[in-house]
Amino acid sequence: MMLSDNSGCQDKPETVLALEPGHIHIALITSGKLGDALISLVIANNLARVGFVVTVCNDFVHSLADWLPALFTRPEFGPNEYPDGFSNFDLVLVDAQSPNLPAEGSNLRRELASRAVFFGLSHFDASLNGRFDRTLFPADRRELLGSLLVGNGLARNRAEKGRSMVEHVCAFCRRELNLKNVTQEIGLVAPVGISTMPNPDRIIICPTSGKARKNWLATRFLELATQLKAKGKEPVFTVAPSERADWRRQLGNKFELAKTDSASELAALLVSASAVVCNDSGVGHLAGALGTPVLCIISRRDPFYTWRPGWGAVTLVRPALPVRALPQVWPYLVSVTAVLRRLDVLLEKTTTPNQEG
To answer: Is the link from the previous residue into 83 a cis peptide, with omega within 30 of 0?
Structure first.
């Protein structure tokens, strides 16, 4: 189907829309999580770089449409779009953790695997491997599209220690999708009107994440902001829209709470800063992909934590002692002093000559 006919895609420049009939259109349906979706953009961008027309189906990514000139986007697939929506594309790649799919392990999910190629970043039901029906491909495209049929849908290779998930997905692109010259880039480009010159004093603080157990103590984020402000920095907080009322009460009039109702607004905020301090969250992945230095406070002792932000300058701050048996204790073993010390080092490493002057 021609790209211009695909409902749900945003308008692109005419030079992109003027496609030859032979172009192959691929849909990538990602996990609903921001961090996972950004990591999956490694797949989308590498497919686009070799000439495939790629539509990414994810609400966060759709919000970032103006930041992704090489890709098309649309919202996530609704429950009634499986599998009829597949017919709009020559091939569909589906993260097994995507929203609105049938229950994991169900026969319906295995039936869907005959019409789409399933994969998983870190967890995957191996029964979905090798189920795709090759006869669905037109004869003249069978060879080219067949090279994208995944034999092992699990992207993470646990035998490869120390790799970030971004590196695992790059290896997956080479191993399973037979792509050459694979890059970690995901193609984010600031739209016209968005300044990419960071404020050297602005530090973005994101004190929440998708799971409460991954969060450093709120009181310590507040103390961190207080000490940064005393040093002449400009701490700015950002949280999910559903968390804003609670954090507005906690912050009072002491610190700015940015309005970031969309991933696009969040991206514009992140590129305005000299660094981002966050928990293990999608914000860290987005900041890293945008080139903003990231200080990520994690609950693990592993210095090569697989789910660390995989792009740019990233510093992990870890508990002072191993606490796997007492996960609720770890936030008390990361001090404000340790975070400030590591942030100073990160800023010193990433400050440009223009900012020093």
So the answer is: yes
